[in-house]
């Protein structure tokens, strides 16, 4: 997007890369801060309950045993969690940014690109929907209603982007500098979010901490085939979407 001739030559060539890295870094800060906060609260609650339990026990041996157990509480919060709602929300946020732009692009695209773009976007959104749907379905700490609301957010965002595109269709100028900068920034920022969630929260979780770490040869082979096939498919679709 920042390579558009109407924007002119950028003084800083790595503008897109810088925005992508900023998106990934801000996503990291958000997740790290929330994990520190939730871990601190969990340890505080566990420490209070441990102290109350120790005071209620009679005898020095019982007291020592209870106190020895207190420092170990909360260590599991350091390990990655496959069903962390915050991780899924961050993933959905990146997808939503990107999907909204796709919806606008679909409406304002010229007639010569419309048919190709529709087909590409159908597959593009299908793959993203599958990835997000799998993560939402694995959330064991939230209700079914919340899962449905999260899924509905993804399902409705592209039509919402199309509605925005229809609203600005008469005045939309894809070659306007402000428009190029706005869309390019949102695209690059959402790419940073998706790169973080893809590499850290999905790729590493599945293969380094999830079921695939100790899976058999057949399951590992199928998983690797699906992973590489998905990478190739999305790379090809990225030419148009």
Q: What general outline do the C-alpha atoms trace?
A: globular
Helix content: over 70%
Radius of gyration: 23 Å
Order of helices and strands: HHHHHHH
Strand count, sense and barrel status of the largest sheet are:
none
Low-confidence parts: 61-77
Fraction of residues in β-strands:
under 5%
Question: How many E-type strands?
Answer: 0
Distance between the termini: 12 Å
Number of helices: 7
Q: Which structural class fits the helix and strand makeup?
A: mainly alpha
Mean pLDDT: 77
Describe the structure in brief.
With 241 residues, this protein is mainly α. The chain has helices at 15-56, 60-69, 85-108, 111-137, 144-167, 177-209, 217-237. It has seven helices and no strands.
Secondary structure layout plus pairing:
Elements: H1 15-56, H2 60-69, H3 85-108, H4 111-137, H5 144-167, H6 177-209, H7 217-237
Helix pairs in contact: 1-2, 1-6, 3-4, 3-5, 3-6, 4-5
């Amino acid at each position: 997007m920042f390579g558009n001739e109407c924007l002119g030559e950028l003084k800083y060539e790595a503008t897109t890369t810088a925005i992508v890295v900023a998106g990934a870094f801000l996503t990291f800060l958000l997740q790290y801060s929330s994990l520190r906060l939730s871990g601190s609260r969990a340890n505080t609650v566990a420490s209070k309950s441990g102290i109350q339990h120790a005071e209620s026990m009679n005898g020095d041996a019982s007291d020592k045993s209870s106190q020895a157990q207190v420092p170990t509480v909360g260590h599991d919060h350091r390990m990655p969690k496959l069903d962390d709602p915050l991780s899924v929300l961050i993933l959905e946020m990146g997808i939503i940014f990107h999907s909204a732009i796709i919806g606008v692009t679909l409406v304002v695209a010229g007639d010569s690109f419309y048919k190709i773009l529709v087909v590409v976007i159908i597959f593009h959104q299908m793959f993203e929907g599958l990835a997000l749907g799998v993560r939402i379905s694995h959330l064991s700490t939230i209700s079914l209603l919340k899962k449905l609301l999260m899924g509905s957010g993804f399902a409705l965002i592209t039509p919402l982007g199309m509605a925005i595109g229809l609203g600005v269709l008469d005045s939309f100028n894809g070659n306007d500098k402000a428009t190029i900068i706005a869309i390019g920034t949102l695209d690059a920022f959402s790419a940073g979010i998706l790169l973080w969630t893809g590499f850290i929260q999905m790729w590493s979780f599945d293969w380094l901490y999830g079921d695939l770490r100790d899976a058999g040869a057949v399951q590992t082979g199928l998983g690797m085939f699906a992973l590489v096939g998905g990478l190739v498919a999305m790379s090809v679709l990225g030419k148009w979407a």
